[in-house]
Design a protein that fits this description.
This protein is of the alpha/beta class. It has 7 helices and 15 strands. Strands 2-1-15 form a 3-stranded mixed sheet, with helices on one face. The longest helix has 17 residues, at 37-53. The mean pLDDT is 96.
Length: 281
Amino acid sequence: MSIQIPFAPLRRVYVRPPVAADLERWQAYGWRSAPDAARAAEEHAALREALAAAGAEIVIGTAPTPGDPDAIYTYDPSLVTDDGAILLRPGKVGRRGEPDAIAEDLQPAGLTVIGRLTEPATAEGGDMFFLDEGTLLIGRGYRTNDAGIEQLRGLLPRVEVVAFDLPHLHGPEECLHLMSLISPLAVDLVVGSTPMMPVRLVELLRDREISIVEVHEEEFDSMGANVLALGPRIALALEGNPMTRRALEAAGVDVRTYAGAEISRKGDGGPTCLTRPLERG
């Protein structure tokens, strides 16, 4: 199986613009406040422009997910390799229709479904990323369970799946993914919050000589660690978080930003959450 390296140049990406009727159910999905549908649409259009300006082909999803505002966070319903997609099974019950929607959207784009998680497994994309060609990191938390991790091991027999327990933090009602804590930026660089990371994850990064750009503690809740690699040491970040941005730039990272008051801050979904890379390299 050919693995997609998460910091290789972004060539093709799947996104889903917000649907005004779906955003009306923001409260049921735990958003912080009511999003303005018109502004959300404008922000998402600007996000797509930024991705296109970076050289990525944009694949826009339109398969219906009625009443699900979280469907704009396209990273979560699948795990994509260069051979095709594994459809996951979200831990958040209201998102269980999203894997079918992504399969419908991506079939015309030529993406093959190579596997699917089944009950009792749960897993969300935000809890996992490929560190390199042979290693998948997974956070075991309230959205990804042991059965999900074991099914992924079975679907990826040539990949070392390394799982870490995530911190409880604010409990099961508030989403905390592995990628809330860390984002890869190059073969030797990540951005993350070490106080929130599992000890074994910090040790793994140290052993592989991967440096950590530290997210300032005041910018953890504002998604300072949620950064999308457009290429090696090229990052797309949510507007704001100036201390983390300065730290990234000091490490030689080209930081580009987008406005996400409606689509990111209110729903707690940063640039990684809003995009599902389909092709890199």
